[in-house]
Amino acid sequence: MQPLTAREIYQQLRDVALEVRVLKRLEEGCRSGPVQVDIEGWQLTLDVDGEHLRHCLHCQNPEGRVFDGGRRFGTDPVSLLSTWELAQIERLLAAG
């Protein structure tokens, strides 16, 4: 099974920013550190520092394909987001 690419995860995050998909935070309270979210069956672990989204640490899609956390430069889906898209995601994460 092929691993997920940064571009595939970016598309999910972009759709959330455009309000095409729904992001649901799976745990409450923690403002910094790893945050678990669900995007219509896609399970993501995001690294959040206060109000800022830093990285995608892990992702698994509904079919079971996995993203390794983008250990190589330029492979983090968060780095592909535009400034506006990133602000939208951060706003949704802060809202809970």
Q: Care to describe what's here?
A:
The chain has one domain (6-95). Helix content is 26%, strand content 30%. The protein is built from two helices and five strands, in the order αβββββα. The protein has helices at residues 6-17, 83-95; strands at residues 23-25, 33-39, 42-49, 52-60, 66-67. A five-stranded antiparallel sheet has the order 1-2-3-4-5, with helices on one face. β1 (23-25) and β2 (33-39) form a beta hairpin. α1 packs across α2. The longest helix has 13 residues, at 83-95.
What's the topology here?
Layout lengths: L5 H12 L5 E3 L7 E7 L2 E8 L2 E9 L5 E2 L15 H13 L1
Antiparallel strand pairs: 1-2, 2-3, 3-4, 4-5
Helix pairs in contact: 1-2
Strand line-up of the largest beta sheet: 1-2-3-4-5
Helix content: 25-40%
Q: What is the count of β-strands?
A: 5
Radius of gyration equals 12 Å
